[in-house]
Design goal:
This protein is mainly α. The protein has five helices and no strands. The protein has one domain.
């Protein structure tokens, strides 16, 4: 039995490295979602709760955070999906495909702010926030 110890150690090390990579990619995806959600919250406050024109202008400035979050989420999501493609439920693809639409909505809002665009942006944000959360909770039970 002692001759199998190095093989078991190698398997364990490979498992730890793979698990660590997946954890890091998931973390980067969560950071991307957090940036997008933070920018969406600033936009909501700017359109519905800000009293003065200067407050609205100041609260609209973090909209590029949405784009930064989308890039972080997209890059990490692509790498993560390629590593666990066989375990991704269909709902995970919903999150991935709704992200570009949300980015386009944020750019549209950035160029021409207004409440109708904010409403669409919020729906876009929720369309990739909820499937990501459901996919993450589902992947914990299958891992």
């Amino acid at each position: 039995m002692p001759q199998f110890a190095p093989i078991k150690a190698a398997r364990c090390t490979a498992f730890i490295l793979i698990s660590t990579l997946e954890v890091l990619l998931r973390f980067k995806m969560v950071v991307g979602i957090a940036f997008g959600t933070l920018a969406a919250c600033f936009i909501i406050v700017a359109e519905w709760f800000a009293n003065t024109r200067s407050d609205k202008t100041d609260l609209r400035k973090p909209v590029p955070l949405y784009l930064m979050g989308a890039v972080a989420y997209g890059v990490a999501g692509a790498l993560y999906a390629s590593s666990i493609m066989e375990r991704i439920p269909l709902l995970g693809f919903t999150a991935a495909t709704s992200l570009p639409a949300s980015v386009l909505l944020s750019v549209s809002y950035w160029k021409n702010p207004g409440r109708p665009r904010v409403s669409r942006l919020i729906l876009g944000q929720l369309s990739y926030l909820f499937p990501s959360a459901i996919t993450a909770s589902g992947s914990k039970s299958t891992s």
